[in-house]
Structure formats: structure tokens, C-alpha cells
Amino acid sequence: MHGTGRSAEEVRRRLVIGRQRAWLRWTLGSKRALDAGSAFLLLVGLSPLLAMLLVSCGGRLTRQARLGRWAEPFEMVSFDFEPKSVARRLGLHRLPVVVSILRGELSWIGPRALEPAELTAADREQWRRWDLRPGLLSLWWIRTRANNNYGTEWETDSEYGQDAGVWNDMGIVARAIPAALYGSGAAITEDEISVLGLRMDNLTMSEAVDWIGQRIRTRETAAIRFLNADCANRAWSDDGYRDVLNSAGLTLADGIGLKLAGQILGRPVRQNVNGTDLFPKLCARLAEGGHSLFLLGAKPGVAELVAAWAAENHKGIRIAGVRDGYFSAEQDEEVVRQISAASPDVLLVAFGAPRQDVWIAARAGRLGAGVAMGVGGLFDFYSGRIPRAPQWMRDMAVEWLYRFWQEPGRMWRRYFVGNFVFLLRVGLERLGRRPWEK
Predict the structure, then answer these.
(1) Where are the domains of the chain?
(2) Cα 284–290–296 angle (5° rounding)?
């Protein structure tokens, strides 16, 4: 023990915390210096334009109450142009916000500047978020555009706060470029939409997990399909597969291709509900109630590794069984009996599309599973056999490019030919062509 009565471990802990705080102060200080310097130079360079815009709007300014760092109120000022004016359409009315950046009320990058009415007592406890200046551009905005805003805005802001700094901000600016091209998120849209004649349930990730949880509690049998551009291309010329997709209890949008299709057709897709991101959330829900999971597919040994990952990361989940996907036609009935005897709450089948969906549909009445879904290459990711694209690529909605880099010989046709064909067909549907309607 030291003379102060503190243990060596306590001293080390305080030193670590002190270094972290010093690093945070230095990081935020350098970020603030860059904000102020760039805002000053921008104001000097734009001063003639700002003066001209101020005169053109008759000196009228709009003031909006916002909450800044530590929830301190401030006013965001903009030029008061008519809604249909050219200046407003070009976004020039927002230029006075540079003054707020120079004054330290805003940053270029940071959490969204909230309105006072949005603040709740619980929100005030999000200390990591309020330690940062709000920004014109936020990580949450990017993820909303990319349709992978699965958590809450507060969680995303806290994530940003852990890595806040100039380099992280530069990465967010780079991610914002493709995000701006993807269009806005879909907060309000239809609950069910169709693309190329394929029905799709327009749910968010949390709504999909709730839907599955409800079926598990009531022991209702249901099949879930994931619809992506490749599945839609296959169903275009395969009526049997089309029927399988359209007969599912739940069909979920998977990938940026479906988001773009929804924009072209005027049917916005709420979120990219892919199986890889759904899996950990599903495991958490199963663990809460001590429910069971059966894993079928992939190479020998892979399913066991995924089961080990689920059991380690989600205590309480029950593994009803595992089986690789390398079995003969003669062994098929044996596999069905194994699953039926285990009677899992959820069955995941990783055969790849369309085989996995067709296999489930043909045996639906005999599997004895509550919810069955085909999950493609999910097992490879969670077993560690194939690394997943880093988060920044997912935020830019270019995970497909990472998959191509991993397996160019297998993926080039699907991504560089298939995606083009898919969007071409969506364009033809937009023009009124519907060859599936016979």
C-alpha cells in the first residue's frame, strides 16, 4: 500500500483515466482549432456572397433554438428566403451557420443539434454525447441514409464520442459522399411493398426481431426470407423460386440494391434488414427467454464455431443442434428427423440462395421448428472463417465491394453484372413493364 492508502491497482487506474482525459482534451482542442480556422477562412472568402444574400432576403433572418455542448441553448441563424426560391433550393439560406461554428456553438462534425423540446431527463444522462459540440454532419445521418441505423441515435452518438477527433471526422466526411447519393431514410412508408413482383415486408431491424419474438412465444411456425438483388434476379426467370419468396411468412429487404429500387419505384425501404446484422440481435432475444437455436449448413466444423460464438456472447441461449450442409440426398430425411427431434425455436439454414429457401419450403411441415430462415454466408462470418467488411464500408453501403475483393472469381458476375441487370429491370418496372404478370 502507498502512503495515501491507495493500492497499486487504484493508482494505475487513476493514471489511465488521467491519460484518457488528457487525450480527450487534446483531441477536442485540435478539433476545435480546425473548426474555428476553417470557419474563419470560409467566412472571409464568402463575405461578398453573404452580404449579397442578406440584401436579397431583405435582411430577414430565421432563428432556431438548438442545444449545444453540455445542453447549453443557442440559436442557429439562416437567411429567410421563400420556400420555392432558388437560393433555398441550393441550400444557400444555411450559410450563416458558419458563424455558429466560428463561435464554438457548432462543429462541422458531431452529434445532431437537438431542439430543446427533444430533450428528456434520460437524455441528459448521456454524458459522452453532451461532452461534444453538435455538428452539421453526424454519423447517425450517414447510417440513416445507408439504411443501417439499427440502434438508437444516442448509441451512435456515444460511439462517435469514443473516437471523436480530426481523423475520425475526415472518415465521416468520406462516408457522407455516397450517403448523400442514396437519398433520405424512410421514416414513413408502406408496411408492405413490392419490387419486380416480389412481396416484401417493410420493417426495421427492431420490428423484425419483435416479429420473430412474437412467433417464438406463441410457437407459430413461420418461414423468413431475405430478398436482395441477386434473389430478385433469380426469381425473374424462376417461377418456382418466385412462389417460394412470395409465400414466406416474412420477407425482409437485404442490401443497398433494394433501397435504390425502392427510391426508383417511389416505395421507400425503411432499413437494410440483412441476416448478418440480425443474427446477434436475434441471439440476444433468444437468450432472454432461454430459447433454442439449430444451425444447419456451411462446411464441416463451421456451424459448431457459430454455436460457440452464440453461447459465449449470449448467455442463456440453448443450442438445439448443429449440422453441416455437406450431406447427400439419401441423408436428407435423417437431417429432417434430427431437426424435428430437437424442435428448435429458430432454425437457421446456410445453404445459399435459392437452395436454402426452397429446401425450407419443401420441408416446412416436417421440420418441427418455430421460425426457419435461410441466412446465406452468415455462418462464415460468425465462425471467423471469412472476415466481414469494416464498419466504415458498411456505413458507405459498399460491403458488396469488400465481398468482391475477398472472392473476385465468384462474386464479379453477381455484383458487376447482376446489380446492373437488377436496376435495369427495376427501371423497366418504373416505366410500366411487368412481365411476371401473365
Answers:
(1) 8-137, 192-430
(2) 75
Amino acid of residue 389: A
| CA distance readout (Å), 423 to 253, 393, 408, 417 | 15, 21, 21, 10
Q: Is the pLDDT of residue 409 over 60?
A: yes
Cell of residue 264, nine digits: 426508383
Beta-carbon contacts of residue 134 (< 8 Å; ≥ 6 apart): 66, 67, 68, 69, 106, 107, 110, 111, 112, 113, 114
Q: How far is CA 77 from CA 52, 55, 118, 227, 427, in A?
A: 16, 15, 19, 44, 41
Pairing mode of beta strands 73-79, 318-323: unpaired
The span from the CA of 154 to the CA of 392, in Å, is 18
With 0.70 as the threshold, say if the pTM is over it: yes
Residue 406, SS3? Answer: helix
Q: Please state the rounded mean pLDDT for residues 392-411.
A: 91
Neighbours of 272 (CB within 10 A): 25
Beta pairing class for 73-79 and 61-67: antiparallel
Would you state the cell numbers that stand for residue 419, as one nine-digit string? 446489380
399 contact partners, CB below 8 Å, separation of at least 6: 388, 389, 393
pLDDT digits (tens, 9 = 90+) for 227-270: 999 999 999 999 999 999 999 999 999 999 999 999 999 999 99
